Amino acid sequence: MGLDKGPVRVTIEQRFCYSPFPDKIAMSQKITVLALVLFMLVPFAAQAQTDADKSDESAQAQPQEPAKIVITPHRAIYNMTLGTVKNGSNISDVSGKMFFEWNDVCNGWAVQQHLELKISYSEGDETEISSAVVTWESKDGKNYNFNVRRITNEKETENYRGKATMEDQAGKVAYSIPKDKTMELPPGTIFPSLHTEFIIKKALAGEKLFTSKVFDGSDEEGLADVSSFIGPLQHEFQSTEMNPSLRDSALLKNPGWNVRLAFFKIKSETGEPDYEMNMSLLTNGVAKSMHIDYGDFSVTGVLESLEELPSPGC
Q1: What pLDDT is attached to residue 64?
Q2: How far apart are CA 35 and CA 91, in angstroms?
Q3: Lowest-pLDDT range, 113-117, 224-228, 271-275, 288-292?
Q4: Within-domain flag for 1
């Protein structure tokens, strides 16, 4: 991924397009979109503690019904910092906060995500980014509403709003912003929350790899092939950078997996992902940490605050 002047490939959470923006704005778009990647994953919780405790005895155990996916609404804030930088990159620093809130609204999952970032460049320039993503997805995975807005240096750079539906064979998207824009979704397309559910279900079943077409509406195309790589179940995650006040949090006591996501442009000719993301995903749906690899540099997100939200009681 180059940082030369001119059009660059912009990866939008799971989307890919060629951007007319100067490379620094395009890079800021890439970072704000990848913030949404995390929140494709963290909404769902799995009632998996019992299964985790019995994982070492699975060879002797009788076949069991798949573990039930249980939702744990929560609010989290992550501290975002620059991870690694490769030689030749003009990125000198990245800092900011990522706010996420997930709620059960009875008929669906409501997610709000806000990101504030400052990107510093070696030549002395800085870019300030603000993004807001608000979505609702029905619990049957057939309906999805999205509202995405990004601001770079106090100027709006992207705004997408619309509704998507999936039927048995295929789906469609109707945008209100841009006005009158429509698109067709191929068979098998899923929305972000259902994708999260798939990850946890397959992790609980011991599966290590699967690929899905996922639509989130976060850019012009809004669609990508996402390959999910799931590591072994871990009963304890160590995090030396996490806020010390969270070390005794009951929400962080669950086991979990290291999950790696690779995002590919639809019909990609290179066979290489446009970007990848690693995260520590607990069985209760909390993402303890994340590492986002853009190629020339990476960004790390560390949990700063976490609280459980009340269930709606529906």
Answers
A1: 42
A2: 18
A3: 271-275
A4: no
226 CB-near residues (< 8 Å, 6+ apart): 14, 195, 211, 212, 213, 214, 261, 262, 263, 264
95: in domain: yes
Beta bridge partners of 98: 78, 115
Residue 58 identity (one-letter amino acid): S
Residue 233 inside a domain? The answer is: yes
Domain-embedded: residue 2? no
Global pTM value: 0.78
Closest CA to 3 of 68, 89, 72, 78: 89
What's the structural domain count of the chain?
Answer: 1
**What SS3 string covers 287-299?**
EEEEEEECCCEEE
Distance CA 299, CA 4 (A): 20
Contact by Cβ (8 Å): 289, 300: yes
Domain assignment of residue 103, given as a range? 8-55+71-306
Structure token pair of residue 143: 């309906």
Q: Which residue has the tokens 């890439």?
A: 30
In the DSSP assignment, the letter for residue 106 is: S
* CA distance linking residue 80 with residue 265, whole number of Å: 26
Q: Name the token pair of 120.
A: 């510093």
As a whole number of angstroms, the distance between CA 96 and CA 81 comes to 7
3-class secondary structure, 67? coil
Distances 87 to 112, 171, 206, 274 between C-alpha atoms, Å: 36, 44, 38, 19
Closest Cα partner for 2 from 33, 28, 23, 30?
Answer: 23
CA atoms within 13 A on the CB side of 30: 32
